[in-house]
Amino acid sequence: QVQLVESGGGSVQAGGSLRLSCVAYGYTYNIDCMGWFRQVSGEEREVVAHIYTVGFGTYYADFVKGRFTISQDSAKGTVYLQMNSLEPEDTAMYYCAADTLRCPTDPNEYKYRGQGTQVTVSS
Q1: Quick one: average pLDDT of 24-51?
Q2: Given pLDDT bands bounded at 50, 70 and 90, which one contains residue 38?
Q3: Which of 19, 63, 77, 95 lies 20 to 30 A from 6 at CA?
Q4: Are strands 112-113 and 92-99 parallel, antiparallel or unpaired?
């Protein structure tokens, strides 16, 4: 079993920055992908970014390209999401997720996910 614990959410004004962290615990040896998705209450989840733990290949949704950066510290078992130039439209609950073998394109298909951390951006 794998447990994911997020931190770093909060409230900022538009144009500000936040860094989310996600620490993976447990049987993490077979985790090949870690990512972030977000959800606004009442709306569908959407993938934000993901990173392969070997090779460090990354993916970003179009709406965050150039503003968000995903990275990892393998020694710490931690994945980060640096969010710059935040917009009110980025307000959502952000979830860390992990999977084996591949990074799902559908956020609902991730094998593991955390409890989420709230990000609120005010105009």
Answers
A1: 95
A2: very high
A3: 63
A4: antiparallel
8 A C-beta contact, residue 1 and residue 24: no
Q: How many residues does the chain have?
A: 123
- Is the pLDDT at 55 greater than 90, yes or no? no
Q: pLDDT at residue 74 above 90?
A: no
As a whole number of angstroms, the distance between CA 15 and CA 94 comes to 18
Percent of the chain with pLDDT over 70: 100
- In angstroms, rounded to a whole number, what is the distance separating the alpha carbons of residues 34 and 68? 15
> What pLDDT, on a 0 to 100 scale, did the predictor assign at position 17?
98
Q: How far apart are the first and last CA of the chain?
A: 40
Q: What is the DSSP string of the chain?
A: -EEEEEE--EEEETT--EEEEEEEEES-TT--EEEEEEE-TTS--EEEEEEETTT--EEE-GGGTTTEEEEEEGGGTEEEEEE-S--GGG-EEEEEEEESSS--SSGGG-SEE---EEEEEE-
